[in-house]
Structures are given as structure tokens and as C-alpha cells.
From TrEMBL:
Chain positions recorded as sn-glycerol 3-phosphate binding sites: K84, G112, K167, D220, S230, R231, N232
UniProt gene name: gpsA
Catalyzed chemical reaction(s): sn-glycerol 3-phosphate + NAD(+) = dihydroxyacetone phosphate + NADH + H(+); sn-glycerol 3-phosphate + NADP(+) = dihydroxyacetone phosphate + NADPH + H(+)
Classification via InterPro entries: 6-PGluconate_DH-like_C_sf, 6PGD_dom2, G3P_DH_NAD-dep, G3P_DH_NAD-dep_C, G3P_DH_NAD-dep_N, NAD(P)-bd_dom_sf
Keyword field: Cytoplasm, Lipid biosynthesis, Lipid metabolism, NAD, NADP, Nucleotide-binding, Oxidoreductase, Phospholipid biosynthesis, Phospholipid metabolism
SUPFAM superfamilies assigned: 6-phosphogluconate dehydrogenase C-terminal domain-like, NAD(P)-binding Rossmann-fold domains
Protein name: Glycerol-3-phosphate dehydrogenase [NAD(P)+]
NCBIfam families according to UniProt: PRK00094.1-2 (NF000940), PRK00094.1-4 (NF000942), PRK14619.1 (NF011212)
Residues that coordinate or bind NAD(+): G12, G13, G14, I15, W16, G17, A116, R231
Described purpose of this protein according to its UniProt entry: Catalyzes the reduction of the glycolytic intermediate dihydroxyacetone phosphate (DHAP) to sn-glycerol 3-phosphate (G3P), the key precursor for phospholipid synthesis.
Amino acid sequence: MLENAKKITVIGGGIWGQTLANLARRNHLAVRVWSRHIGEDLGAIIADTEVIISAVSIKGVVPTIEKLQQLQLNSRIIIVTATKGLEPITTRTPFHLWNQAFPANPLVVLSGPNLAKEINQGLPAATVVASYVQKAAILLQKLLSGESFRVYLNSDPLGTELGGTLKNVMAIASGVCDGLQLGTNAKSALLTRALPEIVRVGTCLGGCQETFFGLSGLGDLLATCNSPLSRNYQVGYQLALGLSLPEILGKLEGTAEGINTTEVLMRIAQEKNLYVPITCQVDRLLRGEISPQVAVYELMRRDLKAEFD
Ligand SMILES: NC(=O)C1=CN([C@@H]2O[C@H](COP(=O)(O)OP(=O)(O)OC[C@H]3O[C@@H](n4cnc5c(N)ncnc54)[C@H](O)[C@@H]3O)[C@@H](O)[C@H]2O)C=CC1
Ligand SMILES: O=C(CO)COP(=O)(O)O
């Protein structure tokens, strides 16, 4: 099978795009990385490509799609989306946007607990490739799997994508929890309550409940909410230390998608009448309306309720 994928093009030269390219190179595949800064002709690069992996941040998804639409993409090319975010204007996920633009191409979502820096060090990690086109997901599984990178299949691309997207909001909350030194009980309560919030939103947007308990859901929630390597966690942590958002973003390496996701998710929640208490406090905090301490207080003083309802 591997020999059939002669060429992979990764779009997005950030740390995640580079990491995915390295994983494919470890399997001796011919990989090109294209980013808007390199000035190379994307049309020439994808001329004989069989797989395109999009690893741009959410703000780059629509521009990337528009660029590829001008290039009359061959419908046999497998498109893989590795972005974790919600498009601000349409509130849609990257899977929706890619599917709408290229309905004839096999489309795969790649998402999981994948802190790029750890993967680049060769530390063991696992991820999920999800698609309605099983053959395409199986090919991706073979192309990227290796000794230190284990790739699982899933047939729920939307749920796989939403788990990775929604946990970024929770990672900001988790960073606040650690930055304020609220303790292990608080952290455990936060992460455990974060999961049903993710499931509530994720199933409403079309994901399967089961998916959110897997690697791309709970797995990524645990990784991102517990690691200083996560940019989203760092945003929350540093807000708790008293830094302002512009100060934090000025020094942050790469994108913290949870900031945009929180804003978009609040609009979705209002429109669909979804109960999202943690997201709501993260939103008020990011807007500068409340302090981290008040966000915690507001979460604790809500009406008492049953654990499962
Ligand atoms: N860094 C990580 O550990 C992981 C990141 N991700 C996700 O992958 C995506 C990219 O993450 P990183 O590489 O870390 O971010 P990054 O900030 O390092 O890179 C973002 C990339 O998107 C491109 N981009 C941004 N706006 C664009 C535009 N308008 N047109 C074309 N390209 C544009 C940038 O040039 C850059 O190549 C994010 O959605 C992130 O959540 C997923 C798994 C792991
Ligand atoms: O998605 C990630 C790990 O799975 C990366 O998290 P950050 O974007 O918060 O760095």
C-alpha cells in the first residue's frame, strides 16, 4: 500500500505541519511542506501528490481551500485535515468546510493527544484518523504509523474533530486552575465536568457520543489540560498569574486555537440553547470582564444540581 502514496503535501509550515511531515518522512515517504511564506508554486507541488495534509490554523483554512479551488484539484487526492478550530464566520468545523469545497475527494480528519514537541522528540503517542471513506483512513493509518506513533481508525470524522477542538477551551480553564494553585481535587472536578460539556456540544453538532470518550476526546483533553507544552493551557496559566491576554499572546509560540473557539462556541451555545458553564466563564475571562478568581467563584456558586442530567 505504501508504495501507492508516492507523494504527500503538507500545507502549513507551523510546528504541527512540520511534525506530521517528519512522521511521514520516517516512513520513507516523499513529503513536501508548503506554507504561504515560502513563495513556491503550490500548483506545481501538488501536481503529482496523492495526499494533501492541511495543518494550518483555523484562520488559514478558508484561504487554503480557496487557493486549492483555483488549482482544480484532482478528485482522487485524499485530503486530511489536522486543524483544531471553528471557523469564526460560519461557525463550521474544518471537516465541513473541506467537504463543502471538495465533495468528491476522500476526506480524513486526524486528531488526538498529540503535543507536537513530544512527538518530535520521538516519545510514544497515539492518534486517530477518521473518515466516511474507510479506504482513505486505512491508507493514512499505514502512511503515518511507526514505532513511536500509533494510529487508530474511526468512522466518525465530526466527533473526532470536535473532541480536539472543544478541549482547547477546557485547556484554558485547566491552565487557570493550575495557575491559581487550586489543587488536585479542583483539577479533577474541572476535567470530569469538562467532558460532559464537550459531549453535550459535540453530539449536538453531529459527533457520536462514543468518540468523545476515545483518544481524540478524553485523550486529548487529558494531554492538553495537563501539559505546559499546550499553548491553550499556557494562556489560562498566565492569565491566572495576572498577565494580560495581549502580553501572553505577544510571547506565545504558535496558535492558541481555544481563544477563537471559545468565542465561536458561545455563539453556537446561545443559538442552540446549550448549557456550557465552563466555556461561559472562560469567555468572560478572555474578554477581560472577570478575573480568574471570579471565574472560579461563579462556577462554584451555580445552582446545585444532579451529577447526570
Ligand atoms: N502544535 C500541536 O501540538 C498541535 C496542533 N494542532 C492543530 O494544528 C493547527 C496548526 O497548529 P500549529 O502548527 O501548532 O500552529 P502554528 O501557529 O505553529 O502554525 C499555523 C500555520 O497555519 C498557517 N496559516 C495561518 N493563517 C494562514 C492563512 N491565512 N493562510 C495560509 N496559512 C495560514 C501559518 O502560516 C502556519 O504555517 C492548529 O489548528 C492546532 O490546533 C493539532 C495537533 C497538535
Ligand atoms: O492539540 C494539541 C495537543 O493534542 C496542542 O495543544 P495546544 O494547541 O494547546 O498547544
